[in-house]
Amino acid sequence: MNQASIPAPSDTLLKAFVGSNDGDEEDYYLKCWEGLRTGKSFYAGFNFWAAFAPEYWCIYRQLYGLGFALLGLIITSSYTNFGDFYGLSGDAGEWTATLVLSNLAFRLACAFGANILLYQKACRVIHSLGEDTNAERVSEAGGARPKVMGAAIVITAALIALKWFL
Predict the structure, then answer these.
(1) Of 25, 57, 51, 15, nearest in space to 145 by CA
(2) Whole-prediction pTM value?
C-alpha cells in the first residue's frame, strides 16, 4: 500500500504506538513526525540511538526484519576477513579508513532514516487495526520491546565471543 494513501493517524494513536513510561519519547517522535504528517517535509530528525546501534534500535522498535538483517551482517563480518575474502591487497590503513568511513556513512543514513521508518510502520499498524481502533489496541501492537533487544544483545555477544574459541 502506498504510504501517501494512508491518512495520518491522530496524536493519541501515535503516542500509544510509541509507548513510553515517561512521555518524553512520545513527544519526541510527534515533534519529529510533524513534517511527515503534514506533508511539508520528508525530514524527521536525527535519531542518536539509531546512529549508535541501529541494529538494536530496530529490534527495540519492532523493526525485526531490518534489525536481524543488520545483526546478521555484524556477526558475519566478525567472522570474515574482508581483505582475504575479496582477494584485496594493499595497505591495511587504507582498508581500515575505507571501512570506518563506510560505517560512518551507514550510521548517518540510519540516524536520518530511523524516525521515517518508525512513522511508516506506525501508520501501517494503526491502519491495519481498522478505523474503530483505540489507543489500547495500538499500544499492544506498537511500543518498544526492551526484553527482545536485551536477548539480541546477549546472543550477539555470545556468537562473537564464540569466534575466540573456534
Answers:
(1) 57
(2) 0.77
Helices (H), 129-145: 135-141
The rounded distance, in Å, linking the Cα atoms of 113 and 115 is 6
Q: Which residues contact 161 (CB under 8 A, 6 or more apart)?
A: none
Q: Distance between CA atoms of 53 and 63, rounded to whole angstroms? A: 13
The predicted structure's pLDDT at residue 1: 46
d(CA 90, CA 104) in angstroms, rounded, equals 22
> Rg (Cα) of the chain, in Å, rounded?
19
Residue-wise pLDDT for 89-145, tens only, equals 555 556 666 777 887 888 899 999 998 898 988 888 888 888 777 878 888 888 788
Burial class (CB in 10 A: 0-12, 13-18, 19+), 42: exposed
**Phi, psi (5° rounding) for residue 73?**
-65, -40
